[in-house]
Amino acid sequence: MLVVGRCVMSENPILPVDKKTWNKWSFYINVIIFIIIAVFIYLLFRDAYSAGMVHGSSDVTNALIAVMRDIAFLAVGLVILFVQMFNYYRQLSRRSW
Fold first, then answer.
1. In the structure, how many helices (H) and strands (E) does the chain have?
2. Mean pLDDT (whole number) for 13-40
3. Which residue from 7, 40, 69, 91 lies 20 to 30 Å from 75 (Cα-Cα)?
4. To 10 degrees, the CA torsion angle through 30, 36, 39, 40?
5. Would residue 57 count as lying in a domain?
């Protein structure tokens, strides 16, 4: 952190919090994202089973929409986790030089 006059500038321009607090928040966010991913994996299996059971009837559209909803939430959650993983890897590679 840089101290300029009386203002404290952090390394993160978006959220001016210290590194320890950001790491704690990031850990809790990751735990919540893992829980969300686990719930939507369960919902994906359940909705895919339901879509298979109603295959051939008029309710198949609603069942497939539910499957696509689960896949969309899983994709967003996994993208967030991968972005954070690559950011952590970038930070670790900077420290090792």
1. 2, 2
2. 83
3. 91
4. -120
5. yes
